[in-house]
Amino acid sequence: MQIVCWLKMFFAFALGLISFTGSFGINDSILGQRAKAAASSPREVGRPATRITSELAFNAGFAGASGASAQYGRKIIIAAPAFSAAKIASPAVVDLVYYLGMMTGVDFATDVSPAASAIILMLAASPIAPSDAAERLKGKGIESFLIRGDNSRLEIIANDEHGLANGIYFYLERLGVRWLLPSDKWTVIPTRSNVTLSIDQLVEPAYKVRGYFGTGGFYSYRWGRSYPGSAAFEARTLQWQRRLRYGGEYTLGKSMGEGFIADKKITPILEAHPEYLAKIHGQYSSLYTKDKNGKSELNIIAKLNAGNPGAVALFCDWVIDKLKAASKSPDKSLHSVVSVEPSDGFGYGDNVSELPGDGSASDQTFFIANACAKRVRTDFPNASVILLAYGGHAAPPSFPLEPNVIVQVTPYAFQGTRPERFIAQWKEKAKKLAIYDYWSIPDWTHDEPDFNYLRIGQKLRYWRANKIEGLNAESTYGAGAMGLGHYVSAHLMWDLGLDEHALIEDWYEKAFGPATAPMKRMLERWARSFKLISAELGASFYDINEAAQLAAGNPAVAARVDDYARYLQYLRLRLELNNATDGAIKTRIADKLAEHLLNIDDSSMVHTTRIIDLDTRPYPPVVAGFDLSNPASPGPGWVRIHPLSHHDVEALIADGRKSYQPTDWDEKTYFGELTPLQSIHWTTPNGDPWGTIMPTISDLDLDLEIPAGLNELPLRVTKYVENEITLFDAEGRAVFSTKVEKDSLKGFSSWEEMAIPLAPGHYKIHFHPTGGRANGYFNFQTWKGVPLILHSFLSPKQTPSPQLYFYVPHGLKKIVMFYELGDYNGVFHFQVLGPNGENAQIDFRDNRRILEINVPPGQDGQIWSLINSVSPNVSHEMLNLPQAFSLSREVLMVPSDVIGPH
C-alpha cells in the first residue's frame, strides 16, 4: 500500500502544479507561492552577471531610481482590453509578480487602473497604447514586443498575448533571473532593490518558430498515464520552455493523412470511392488491412490519388475545415498555417501517366499541397500550408510551388542528398522554409550527451541565412543530455547576434559558481567527443568529485552538481549494461537502471519514461517488477523508489571514483594542415599502375595532394550504386563534379574510370553514393603513389579494410582506438601491425570496444598499420593519435601539429 499512497500523492501534486501554471489567481496565491519557493529553492544573492551583447546585456541599463520608485510603485497594470481569458500571457504575469517579489522582498499587485509609476502590460490595440508603439509593431507578428522604460514606468507592448509573455520573460532575464534547467533548483533569483530599466527596444525573434519535443512524449507507452511522475515532468518541462520563450508565430507541420483517413466523416466517402486512394500496380490502395491477429483495421497510412480531382478536393476541403476550427481559438499561432503533410511512410501511386507532373512521389505530394494552398488563400488570404520535404517526397517537385506553401526540410537524416545541397535546392524552390532536425533523440543516443552545444550557433546562423525561419527539433526531454543545448538554442533563435560563448559562460557561472572549472571541463569534453567508455567515466567521476568538493558550503551549487552526479550514475549503469555478457547479470543491471531512473525522475536529468521503455523492454523480470497495469497493485519494484538525498549522491560519487579511475593516457585531437612525412616526388608507376582497392559504405571525404609532375587524378569507382563525386580546391570551391551511373547487372565488377585534370595542390574529394549507410556500398582506386588520406570511413563486414597506414607521434606510449561495436570477437582477424610489420598485442576493454596497444621504446615516431578493420555503422576512432590513414606507406600525410619539435 505504500507505493499506492505515494502514487496518489504524486499524482495530486502534479495536477496541482499544472493547475497553478495555467491559473491567473495572482493576488490570492502569490504569498503561498513565495513561501513554497523559499522553502524549496536555495536563493542566490546575485553576483555580477557576465556581460553579454545585445538583448542579454543583463547588468546594463538600470534606471537611476531609489526607494519605492525603484520598484515601479510595486504595481503591474494590465491595460484594457483584458487578456487573461485566453490564458496565454497569464502564467507569465504570475511569474512576473512572483519573481519581482522574490527579488525585492515586497509584494507586487496587479490592477487595471492607471498609475503614475507602474509596469504596464498592453496590447498595441489598447486605447491607451502610444500611437508610435503601434506603428513600430505594425507587421511584426504576434511574438514581437516593444519594451521601454525609465525610473518611473515600464511599458511592455505587443500585438498579441504571446508578445506580452515574451516581453515579461525578457524583462526578468534583464533583471538577472535565470532558468538554467527545468527545475526549481536550477532557477537563479538575484536580490535586487531596483527593478527599473532604462530601455527602448523593439524585440523580434530571428526564428519565427522555435521548438523541440522529446521522442515518445512525456508518457510511457507501457504505463500510459498510470505513472504520476510523468505529469510533473511534463509540467516542469513546458514551464521551462515557456520561460525560455520557445514557441512560434505559427505551428509547424505534422502528419495529417492518418487523421484524414480515420475521420468518421471521411471514411465512408473513401469506402464509396476506392479510386480516391493511390493506385499501385494497377490496383487502388486498400482502405482496410489486417493486423497481426487477422483483424480488419483502417489503412491510415494509405496515400491519396493525386491524379483524381475528387480526392484532392476532398482533402483540401477537410484541411480548410481544420483551419476554420483553429481560427476560432484565442491562440493566434494556430490561425495562419495548416499542415497538409501526408501520412508517414511510402505507398505513393505508380500510375505515372495518370498523375500530375512527372508522377514522382514528390510531384504527387506537392501537387496536392499546391491545390490546398490555392484553396486556403481564397478563404484565408494571409494563411499558408506547410509540409515536410521528407522520405519519398524529399526532393523538390518538377513544377513551381504556390507562394503560401511552407516547406519544412529534413536534410540531416533519411535523405539521399548532401544536407547543404538539399537546403540549397529547396531554397530555390520555396518562398519559405522551416527545418526538422534530430537533436540527441533517445531512440538513437539513449540520452547520452552527444550534442555539441558549442557549435549550434554556426548551424542556426547558416540555416537562417538560407531562408529557414522555423525549427522543430526531435530531441529528448532529458536535461542531462540536452538541457544546456536547448538553453543556448532558445536564446540564439531570438537573437543570432548574441555571443554564445559569453552566454555559455554566464550559464556556467550562475549554475556552478566556485565549481565552474571542473563542471565546464566535463561538459565541454562531453560536447566535443562523448563516448560511453570506462575511460570517460573515470574522467567524469574525477570531475564531479572535484566539483562536489568545491561546492561544499554552497547548497544551491551543491544541489546542481548533485543532479549531474545523478545523471553520471545513469551513464555508468548504461555502460555496465552494455559491457555485461551474462544474461542474469544484464537483467540485474537493467533492474538497477530502472530503479535509478525513477529515483531521479524529479531532477528531469533523463527522459525517464522513454529510456525505461527502450532499455528494459528486453528484460521481462524488470518489466514485471515495475508493472503499473493496475496502479492499485503495482509491481514489487516500486517499493524501492525514493528520491536520492545529497548523502545518497555522495555515496554514488565515492563508489564511482573507486570503480573508475582516470586513465594513463589522454584523449587528443590534431588540427594542423596535412603535411607529408617525407618528400613526395612523383614517378609514374611501372606495370599495372592501379593501387590498393578501398571498399567502403556511405558518404566519404578524402584529402588529396597532387604533386608536381602529376597533372591529373586517376580514379576508378565501382558502379554497384549511383555515386556523385565532387572535388574541391584548397579554398573550398568545387572544381569537378560527376555522377557515376549504376550498373544493375554487373555491380562491383563494373568500374567507372576517369582521369580528372588537376593542377598541383591540395584538394578534397567527396563521394555521395545513393543508399547512404544502409546500401551505399562502393569501392575506389587510384594509382600507386598518389597521396590520398582517409579520415573517418565505414568498413563493411563483407569486405574489411585493406592494410591502412597511420603515424604514431613521438613520445606516445600507448595507442588507443575506439570501435563502437567492438572487433566482433576477432572473427574478421583485425590486426594492428608495428613499424616492421609485426603483430602488436591488443588489450581489449569495455566489451572489446576500446583497444589499447603499448608502444615499445623506439617504435614511436614511426608508421604503423592496421588491417581487416570492420566498422559498418560508425567510423572507428583513434583517440590519442591522428585520424589520418593512407593506402601507401610512402605518401602518408599527417596534421602539422603532430610533427612538432621532438
Globally, the shape reads: globular
Q: Please tell me the CATH architecture of the largest domain by its name.
A: Sandwich
The count of β-strands is 38
Total number of distinct structural domains: 4
Number of helices: 23
Q: What's the gyration radius in Å?
A: 30 Å
Low-confidence stretches: 1-60
Percent strand: 15-25%
Helix content: 25-40%
Largest sheet: 7 strands, mixed
Topology:
Layout: H1 2-21, H2 26-40, E1 75-78, H3 90-104, E2 109-111, E3 118-123, H4 131-137, E4 145-149, E5 153-158, H5 161-174, E6 178-179, E7 187-188, E8 199-203, E9 209-214, H6 229-243, E10 247-248, H7 257-262, H8 267-272, E11 279-280, E12 283-284, E13 288-290, E14 296-298, H9 309-326, E15 337-339, H10 361-379, E16 384-389, E17 405-409, H11 419-429, E18 432-438, H12 442-445, H13 456-465, E19 468-475, H14 479-492, H15 500-512, H16 516-529, H17 534-551, H18 555-579, H19 583-599, H20 608-616, H21 620-625, H22 646-659, E20 674-676, E21 694-697, E22 700-706, E23 712-718, E24 723-729, E25 734-740, E26 751-757, E27 761-769, H23 772-775, E28 777-782, E29 788-790, E30 804-808, E31 814-818, E32 831-833, E33 843-845, E34 850-854, E35 862-867, E36 877-878, E37 885-886, E38 893-895
Parallel strand pairs: 1-2, 1-3, 3-5, 9-19, 15-16, 16-17, 17-18, 18-19
Antiparallel strand pairs: 4-5, 4-8, 6-7, 9-10, 11-12, 13-14, 20-38, 21-28, 22-27, 22-29, 23-26, 23-28, 24-25, 24-27, 29-37, 30-35, 31-34, 31-36, 32-35, 33-34
